[in-house]
């Protein structure tokens, strides 16, 4: 599977959205409406992994707002890809870098689906750890339909 490390995004110019008039909350809502797109955080001190509802759905785990059962989560990842996950988190922590990687997750139908995780090391006032997002490559599109019950003219 592919893996790419990168430097933290500290020198990148922040993109302005003021002229558009869109908030961070609206961006998160729109991205989450597009596909299963989950957010997560690993607390380095405790080793606890916290994740949003979509991460739980991607791994077919029951949702909890407490720490995720990492043993259960890792059991859903293809055995050949598990060492990649451990290596990635170790390298990100040691060198303070960001990363992208693709790996296989049990689709609970006898096969695997491709999942991408993007993350970065964070060591600031909000605490040390790794934060990131995870999404499916072949997404289950969330579709909203509207019915028109108006009488035809």
Automatic annotation (TrEMBL):
**Where in this chain does the record put each PAS fold-3 domain?**
49-128
Q: What SUPFAM superfamilies does its record include? A: PYP-like sensor domain (PAS domain)
What Pfam families does this protein map onto? PAS_3
Q: What InterPro entries does the record tag this protein with?
A: PAS-like_dom_sf, PAS_fold_3
**Protein name as annotated:** Diguanylate cyclase
């Amino acid at each position: 599977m592919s893996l790419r490390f990168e430097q933290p995004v500290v020198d990148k110019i922040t993109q302005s959205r003021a002229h558009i008039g869109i908030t961070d909350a609206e961006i998160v809502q729109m991205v989450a409406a597009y596909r299963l797109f989950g957010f997560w955080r690993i607390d380095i001190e405790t080793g606890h992994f916290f994740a949003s509802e979509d991460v739980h759905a991607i791994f077919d785990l029951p949702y909890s707002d407490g720490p995720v059962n990492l043993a259960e989560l890792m059991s859903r990842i293809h055995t050949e890809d598990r060492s990649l996950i451990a290596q990635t988190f170790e390298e990100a922590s040691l060198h303070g870098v960001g990363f992208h990687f693709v790996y296989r997750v049990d689709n609970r139908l006898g096969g695997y689906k491709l999942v991408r995780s993007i993350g970065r090391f964070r060591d600031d006032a909000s605490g040390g750890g790794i934060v990131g997002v995870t999404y499916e490559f072949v997404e289950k599109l969330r579709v909203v339909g509207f019915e028109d019950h108006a009488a035809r003219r």
